[in-house]
Amino acid sequence: LVNRFVKGKKRSFSPEVRAALCAHLIALRPDLVLVTGDLTQTALPEEFALAHAALREVAAVAPLFVIPGNHDVYTRGAAREGRMKALFGEWMHLQDGGIARWDQGDLTVIGLDPCRPGLLSSGLVPAEQLVALE
């Protein structure tokens, strides 16, 4: 709530920018779209719904690899309810040990998630992810 009301982060991402970015990605028809988080500004359910709707259009033409950003998981509510995984789990490619992995031919993409809920919304890659990465 501090970010939303004290720091003035009341607005969501621009719908025009979101639409233009998705249209651009769809026109490119890339081999893979790597989304490195901050799909939301304050981890609200309505922000997740907007991001999911936009990415669903992109997923129709290209595979997605999504990992959360600190803004996507920094509230306890978002973490407790598993909002990120609930909507984007199919595109997160999570494996055992919390590692995300996508293999396509000779290409392997690995994603780690250092984000943890908290006031500073920063994090450190957990030891279990580093062990799983080995």
Structure description:
The chain is α+β, with helices and mostly antiparallel strands and 134 residues long. Helix content is 46%, strand content 12%. It has helices at 2-6, 15-28, 45-59, 70-73, 76-81, 83-92, 127-133; strands at 33-35, 64-66, 100-104, 107-111. A two-stranded parallel sheet has the order 1-2. α2 packs parallel to α3 (45-59) and α3 (45-59) runs parallel beside α6. The longest helix is centred in the middle third of the chain and has 15 residues, at 45-59. It is flat, with a radius of gyration of 15 Å. The mean pLDDT is 86.
Secondary-structure element order, as H and E? HHEHEHHHEEH
Class from secondary-structure proportions: alpha+beta
Helix tally equals 7
Approximate helicity band: 40-55%
Runs in which pLDDT lies below 50 for 5 or more consecutive residues are none
First CA to last CA: what distance? 38 Å
Overall pLDDT? 86
Main beta sheet: 2 strands, parallel
Strand content: 5-15%
Looking at the structure, what is the overall shape?
flat
List keywords for this structure.
two-stranded antiparallel ribbon, 134 residues, two-stranded parallel ribbon, alpha+beta
What's the short version?
The chain has a two-stranded parallel sheet. Strands 3-4 form a two-stranded antiparallel ribbon.
